Fold:
Amino acid sequence: MNISITRTTCPKEKPDSSTLGFGKIFTDHMFMMDYNVDKGWYNARIIPFANISIHPASTVLHYGSEIFEGLKAYRRADGTVQLFRPMENIRRMNNSAERLCLPQIPEEDALEALTTFVEFEQDWTPSANGTSLYLRPFLYGNDETLGVHAVHNATFVIIASPVGSYYKEGINPVKIMIEDQDVRAVRGGTGYAKCGGNYAASNRAGKRAEEQGYSQVLWLDGVERKYIEEVGAMNVMFKIAGEIVTPMLSGSILPGITRKSCIEVLKNEGYTVHERLLSIDELKEAMENGTLEEAWGCGTAAVVSPIGELFYQGVHYPVNNGQIGEITQHLYDTLTGIQWGRVEDTYGWTMPLKK
Ligand code: PLP
Ligand code: COI
Structure:
């Protein structure tokens, strides 16, 4: 793939890496590439970071034809930068594209776009503890017509943002509200795809939770509101009476790469992980009788995030006395260790980038 490069004429000052939040600061450049049904993907380019001009009838503005990914570049102690399982994100992006009738990108081209862009912007990868360069590839339908149909034109973009922790709590336990009114997704819908519309539909419940002091909501299934699904921006895992359990991938939850990695680490170390249906009744009983030992969320932005309190139908349930549990801490140490290069990567998950 030929990627043209136009450098910015006014590079920005790099931020102080101790004050980074999440997704507020962007690097100097972005990657863009266009698609037309007759031409395929064309005009791959790295250009100065700038607003995107868009036709007022563009498909994405009216019908929400948009998918995205989230992954990070990590700076190792030796100064080099590496990605974590980028092919997993590329494959998931193509699955999301298939669901929304957006064009897929050949895997090798998507990887070349990503690595070329991150190598170009790598000086923006912060080095303070727990910081990284968050990468946000996104792809949207861009036909200039109001008809509803699979698109003929699309745009793929990658932007990058130096970030600290996603939650203000950092690694400290977060409080999560179990949502029993709105639902996020149903089987047969777009739950397994990482599309903007899923997040738009989540906002009302998320806002209610935040107003009551909770970080995010834990979704129940869209049909019976009975089975645990996932949290707003992460998958969820529990340790109940010694059993590690996480909702199985049913089509309505996002197949998280952090979830998959946690399961692989645990299984590799001899733990049994049950991917199964977990009902709210079972969880409620475990919260009431004290057998819920640990709860944690896992996601790229949130990393491994202990859940210190669950709120359901007017009752506050502390989890592990609001403390981080042993398995949660172990997963956090192992994954962040591999991601930042502090722990040997025996899984082959990291991809070093050229200096
Ligand atoms: N579930 C939702 C709804 C998410 O937004 C995310 C974040 O990407 C995840 C789960 C975790 O996925 P991953 O571990 O691939 O980041
Ligand atoms: C991520 O973890 O990468 C996400 O996409 C979560 C997000 C919606 C901020």
